[in-house]
Amino acid sequence: MHVVSPGEQGPSEATGLQSGTLSNLLPGGRLPQGAVVSAGDDLPLLIALAAEAAADGGAWAAVGLPELGGLAAADAGLDLACGLAVPEPGRRWPEVLATVCEAAPVVLLGPVGQVALRTNRRIAARVRRSGTTLLTLQDWPETQLRLRVAEARWDGLGNGFGLLAGRRARVVVAGRGAAAQPRHAEMWLPGPDGSVRLITEPAASVDADVVPLRPVTAG
Amino acid sequence: MRALVIWAMDWPVVAAGADHAEPVAIIARERVMACSKEARRQGVKRGMRVRQASGRCPQLRLLDRDPEAETRAFEPVLRLLEKRIAPHMEVLRPGLIALPSRGPARYFGGEPALVEHITTVLTDAGIEARSGAADTVFAAALAVRAGQGGQLVPAGQTADFLAPYPVGVLGRPRLSQLLPRLGITTLGAFAALPSDRVLGRFGHDAAAAQRTARGLEARPLNTSGADVDYSVAEAFEPPEDNLEPVAFIAKALAEQLHVRLARAGAVCARLQVEAEVAGGRRLSRVWRHEGRLSALAVAERVRWQIAAWAETGQLDASSAGITALRLVPEGLSAATGRQSLLFGPRIAPEELEHAAGQLQAMLGHRAVVRPELAGGRGPGERIVHIPYGDARSRPLVEGTWPGRLPAPHPAVVYPAPRPAQLVGADGGAVGVSGRTLLTQAPAALSVDGAAPVAVTGWTGPWPVLEDWWIPAQARRLARLQVACADGRAWLLHIQDGRWAVEALYG
Lengths: 219, 506
Fold this sequence. Notes:
A: 219 residues, B: alpha+beta, six-stranded antiparallel beta barrel, 31% helix
C-alpha cells in the first residue's frame, strides 16, 4: 500500500493546489470528471470531496441529503451561495439526478437505497456524457474512485471537559486503471477550524486527563 | 393608471431600409422575427423556421437582425413623438413604446383623440403604427395587436380583456409548461385561482404573474425609502468621444446597478439611461426593465442608445464628447421573486436556474432549496433552507450568540432530533441536575434504539435557555458533546429529562 506523506505532491500540473489537502491523495491530484466517486458512507468525507471538486467556485447540487450540515460544508470550503439542494427527491430521484447533472459540474447524492443495475448504468452513462463529477455517499458498482475512512478518532474530549477539536481519519483511496494501487493518508477530517488537510504533526500521546487548551470565540 | 402602447409595425424591416413591396424577412436565432407585407402575403409568419419560410416564398430575402440599427433608426421617431405628444416615452424594444396616457389623453381630449393624433403624426412621418390602451403596460401591449388597428380597452375591463389569452403570453416558460398540465390554459383560469395557493405552490414569481393576469401591476410600487438613490454613474475625465470605452463602462455600470438593486431587494420597472455631454446638456432615454433584463442586456441597450444618439447628431455639435454616463432605476418595487439573476454576491449560472425551475415544476416550489446562514446557537438553527427563487424574507443580522458552539461543526444535522439513551456505569440513565451537572459520568450511548456504544470522552453540559419570555416558544435544554468508541462524535441534548441526538459530527 502506498502511503502518502504530507510533503509529497500528487502527480499534477495544476499550480493552484494547496499543499497537504485531499488532492494529494487523488490520482492526478484532482477528481475525475464525468465519473462516479464514492465516499464510503462518511458524510464529512463526502463534504471534503465536494469542496475539492467545486473549489474553483463552480456550481454544485445535493440530491437526497436532508441532513447535510451546511456549516461543516462551508468550513470545508464549499461555497453555499453556489449551490442548490433537493433534500427529498422521493421516488423520482433518477430524474432529479439527471436534471441536475446537466446543470452542475459537481453533484452530491445521498443514500437512495437499493439501486437497480440498469439505473446504475444509465446514470453512469449520463454522468459521462455531461462531464459531471458525481459524488455518492453509498457505494456504487459503477464507481471509478472509491474513498473511505478506514479508522477515525476524535480529539479534544476528556472525561467531562474539553471541546471537540478534530477528527483524525485514515482515508483510503482505491480506484480503477491508473489508480489501481490503493493509497492512504492520515488526515484531519475535519480539523479544528473545519478545514480538511493532511496531518503533519505526530499524534499527541493519548492522555485522557490532559487536553491542550485552545482559544474559542463567543458568538 | 392607464398605459398606452404604440407599435410601429414591422420596425426591423423598416429599419433595415427594405421596401414592404418586396418579400423580406429579418432572422434572429434561425427564426423569422419580422417580415415585410409582401412576405406575409406569401405566407411567411413570425416564428417560422428559415427553411420553412424560404419554402413558402422562394424569393424571400433574408437579413440578420441588427438591434443597434433598429435603435438608431428609431431615435428620430422617439424625438418626434416626445416633441408632439408627451415627454415620457418608454422603450420596450425598438418599434414598441409605452407611455402613461392619462395626462396626454386629458390634454388632447380623450384617448381616442390622442390615438388619432399619434397616428396622424406618425403617418405624416411615413411610419405605419397602431396604438392600444389598457390599465397596465402588459395588457396594452396585447391590446395593440388586437382588433383591426389596436384596441382601447376601457378602464376596469382589463381583466376581462386578458381572460381568453393563453398562459404562454406571460413569457414565463416554467409556468407555461406547468399550468396546462394542471388544466389551466387561459389567463382567466389562472387569475381565478386563489392567490395564496399560487404563492405557496409556485412561489413569488408566479404570484406576480397572476397579478399581471388579473390586469393589475405585477408588483405594488414601493413608496417607502423613496429617497434612496440606487442610480450608478461614471464620469469621463477627459470627455470621451469614442463610443467603445463608454460601452465598455456601461457593462460594468449595469452589473453594479444589478448588485445594488439585488442587495436592496428591489426591482425597477424602468431604467433611465442618461448621458451628459460637455457643455452640460443631458440626453436621456427610458427603457422598460421590470427586472427582466440581465446586466448584459442592459449594457447592450445602453450601447445601442449611445450609438443612436451619435448617429442622430445629438452628440456632435459643440460638444466635445460624453462627460458622464448615468443609469437611473425608476419605479422601484420589492423584489420577492427570482427574476433577478443574482443571489448573494455571485451571478447564478443560467443552467442552474433552469434546472431549479424544472425541478420545482416536478416536485413543488419548496422541494428545491438553497442553504443560507442564519442566527442561532444549535447547528440546526444556523442554516436555513430557502426555496430556490425566494429572496430572503429578513436579512441576516449578525449579532453575538453566547453559547454558540465553535468549529468544527457537525457534518450530519438531523432535521428532527433522534431519541437516544445515555446510561452510566451502573446502567441507569444519566440526568442533569439543577446546577447543570451530570448526575453521573456517561458510559454508553444508544442512538435510536441501536446497540449501545461505549463513551470514550464527553464534555458539557451547556445549558440553553431561549425565548423564555414567550411561554409558547420557551426552550430549556442542555447540550453535550460525546465521543464514542466507534470513532463517532455526537451532539446530544436533554430536554424534559429525555435525551436526543441533534447532530453527528462524523
